[in-house]
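Bug #77: duplicate submission created two jobs. Keeping one. Sequence:
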Amino acid sequence: MTGRWFGTAVIASIGLMAGGYLLGNGLLRAKEAERSVTVRGLAERDVTADLATWTISYSSTSTDLAGAQAKVRRDTEAIEQFFAGLGFPADALQPTGANVSSYTSNRETNYTVRQRLSLRTNDIALAQKAVARQFDLVDRGVMLEEGSGMSYTFTKLNDIKPEMVAEATRDARSAAEQFADDSGAEVGAIKNATQGYFSIEARDGEGGGWGVSDSPYKKVRVVTTVDFTIG
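Kept job's structure:
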């Protein structure tokens, strides 16, 4: 009886020690697997807009509705001649809206006729030339209203996204390796990665607000957040 009890106790002890070892080893591996560093990677690229749009608003006010309409028609012809003279095709300029309003003051009714034309082109150099000479329209008697300005857009973001994400990831790994070197460790595989928001800002001057759309020169920026394992 004593021998059997002793044998059973020895086997139980060995089992407990083995189980404790396996449990401890497993916890150690899990702890090592939890070792990681979270870093951010940045990628920036200067690009040039490939689309220019210009909404041109102008109006005429008169006590004679027919006279106001006639003045707007003359302005429209002057604008069409202006863009044709610069080399724009006829279909680059399209009407986008018109309206007539009136108000009465001192028993006299005034009529305002407003017209909007939209220029759309992929010829950025020619668009810049048009903007530089826009006061030629004023010389022709066209009074441009507030809000009449060229807007430049970069539409080929999807073409450069993969390369920029890869560049941002490489930048993140470089930062992780610096952390690892300082702690005597090595950077392993990516545990998790989050692609940041792509922003398109003016290349020069302020990054937001005024100046973002009125310049064809842009800066595309993306920040990625990456978790690397550390061994």
